[in-house]
């Protein structure tokens, strides 16, 4: 081992002599014997390699700073290049020993990029992909590096094609391959060379991608992602038209297609500039109406929850937009409420939209309709805690006399293990809206719950309410008659902890007779 270390240190003598000769380092600063010895012990760790690599990188950074300070820019080949070569060698030894450590490979790549060792960078990527071909992200990173760092479009294309052989169904690989082709075409376009052939190759590549993914039954979301990428480039209008045609012909059974086609109506160009606010509002109203016509056409052949969700989301987004034109505001609200009602009547309205529906109705002051929608939501989603809480909060806000019965209905339909929010809401409502006798009866029922989280919460609130309602005597009576056993069990469980000490103090204070 000593001979190997000595040989490697002797190989460094020329570079160390140069460092000392040109005044970048002193004689005492050119020793790394201990670190080299660590890499040749019988038991070697990854930390040893990382420490050595970090040491050498620190040396590089120090040389860079001292060059800048003294203004000496010569002898780079004898100094920096030698150190960079050694660091690459240490990285190779580390990645050979710990092949599965992707982060180690990525650290080597980051080093190569920072110190501009492009030839070495390609070799690292090649070795890493041979070990980790199952990771699409690494293929994409390698191809991007070839294109962006080395400006080798053909090499990047070759890597993407290899990646697709390993991952023929990876949308991300196809998307990045598509982006790379567009970047390459843009580069040729700017250079005004081989433009016509580049555009033809580009269209052929896209058509091939679309054909492959049509066979794989990929949804419209992938086609739309390609369209989004293409829209970044200003020379892809024909290509975008090709993608849209494919979308319309093959993906009419996907709600995203109809959502995209409907929203395109908002982007239609206007013949002449509209000067007045009313004129602009009128134009916007016509565009929104055309969007709705597309949604309606989609619903004729695709009456699904996803399709209604797109339609409702569109109406809701337009409703939330600010406008000073009252007529447009009222039209948007009317349209939103009508679509929500139709989706509900079709039993295809998503749970989340009921909250938006109730908020709109409450803001309009229609109490009767608000109560009806709240009740309808609970019928549609009987087992949903969130829907019951929303409906109950609405009924409490409206001051409905049927709120108490509604709480009982909610607890019957909801899973007891999930019922804590309902109990909390009912307790808060009872303490402000019911008589003390009724509230105490509610607490007594809550104490009997078989769900520990519910009974625990009720016990705490019961004791707090008793103190606020009847003072210390009432709280003590509640404690001794209902909660004593609970706190004794808690003391046995937590008696040796800090929480136990707090419980013990509270228990003793409550148990002491007072006059």
TrEMBL record:
One of its GO terms (biological process) is maturation of SSU-rRNA from tricistronic rRNA transcript (SSU-rRNA, 5.8S rRNA, LSU-rRNA). It is found in: Nucleus, Nucleolus. SMART domains: HAT (SM00386). SUPFAM superfamilies: TPR-like (SSF48452). Residues 9-86 form the U3 small nucleolar RNA-associated protein 6 N-terminal domain. Residues 289-481 form the U3 small nucleolar RNA-associated protein 6 homolog C-terminal domain. The keyword Transmembrane does not apply. Keywords: Nucleus, Repeat, rRNA processing. GO terms for cellular component: Pwp2p-containing subcomplex of 90S preribosome; small-subunit processome. GO terms for molecular function: snoRNA binding. Belongs to the UTP6 family. This is UTP6 small subunit processome component. It comes from Oncorhynchus mykiss.
């Amino acid at each position: 081992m000593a001979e190997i270390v000595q040989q490697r240190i002797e190989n460094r003598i020329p570079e160390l002599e140069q460092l000392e000769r040109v005044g970048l380092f002193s004689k005492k600063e050119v020793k790394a014997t201990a670190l080299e010895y660590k890499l040749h012990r019988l038991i070697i760790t990854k930390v040893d390699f990382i420490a050595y690599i970090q040491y050498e990188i620190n040396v590089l950074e120090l040389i860079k700073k001292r060059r800048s300070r003294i203004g000496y820019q010569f002898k780079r080949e004898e100094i920096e290049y030698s150190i960079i070569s050694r660091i690459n060698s240490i990285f190779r030894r580390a990645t050979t020993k710990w092949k599965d450590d992707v982060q180690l490979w990525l650290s080597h790549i980051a080093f190569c990029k920072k110190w501009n060792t492009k030839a070495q960078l390609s070799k690292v990527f090649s070795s890493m992909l041979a070990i980790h071909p199952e990771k699409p992200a690494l293929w994409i990173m390698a191809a991007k590096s070839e294109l962006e760092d080395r400006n080798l479009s053909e090499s990047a294309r070759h890597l993407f094609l290899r990646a697709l052989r390993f991952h023929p169904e990876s949308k991300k690989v196809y998307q990045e391959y598509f982006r790379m082709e567009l970047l390459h075409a843009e580069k040729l376009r700017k250079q005004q060379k081989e433009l016509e052939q580049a555009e033809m190759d580009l269209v052929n590549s896209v058509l091939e991608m679309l054909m492959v993914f049509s066979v794989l039954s990929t949804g419209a979301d992938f086609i739309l992602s390609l369209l989004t990428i293409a829209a970044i480039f200003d020379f892809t209008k024909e290509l975008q038209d090709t993608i849209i045609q494919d979308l319309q012909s093959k993906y009419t059974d996907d709600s995203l297609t109809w959502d995209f086609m409907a929203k395109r109506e908002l982007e239609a160009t206007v013949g002449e500039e509209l000067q007045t606010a009313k004129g602009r509002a009128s134009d916007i109203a016509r565009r929104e109406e055309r969007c709705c016509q597309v949604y309606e056409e989609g619903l004729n052949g695709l009456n699904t929850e996803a399709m209604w969700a797109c339609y409702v989301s569109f109406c809701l987004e337009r409703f939330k937009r600010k406008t000073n034109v009252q007529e447009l505001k009222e039209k948007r609200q009317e349209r939103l409420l009508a679509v929500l009602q139709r989706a509900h009547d079709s039993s295809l309205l998503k749970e989340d939209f009921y909250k938006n529906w109730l908020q709109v109705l409450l803001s309009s002051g229609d109490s009767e309709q608000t109560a009806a929608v709240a009740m309808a939501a609970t019928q549609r989603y009987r087992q949903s805690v969130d829907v019951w809480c929303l409906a109950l909060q609405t009924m409490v806000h409206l001051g409905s006399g049927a709120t108490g019965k509604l709480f009982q209905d909610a607890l019957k339909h909801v899973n007891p293990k999930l019922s804590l929010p309902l109990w909390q809401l009912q307790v808060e409502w009872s303490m402000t809206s019911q008589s003390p006798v009724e509230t105490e009866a509610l607490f007594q029922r809550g104490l009997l719950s078989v769900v520990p989280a519910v009974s625990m919460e009720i016990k705490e609130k019961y004791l707090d309410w008793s103190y606020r309602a009847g003072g210390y005597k009432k709280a003590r009576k509640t404690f001794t008659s209902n909660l004593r056993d609970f706190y004794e069990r808690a003391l046995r469980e937590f008696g040796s902890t800090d929480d136990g000490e707090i419980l013990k103090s509270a228990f003793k204070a409550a148990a002491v007779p007072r006059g």
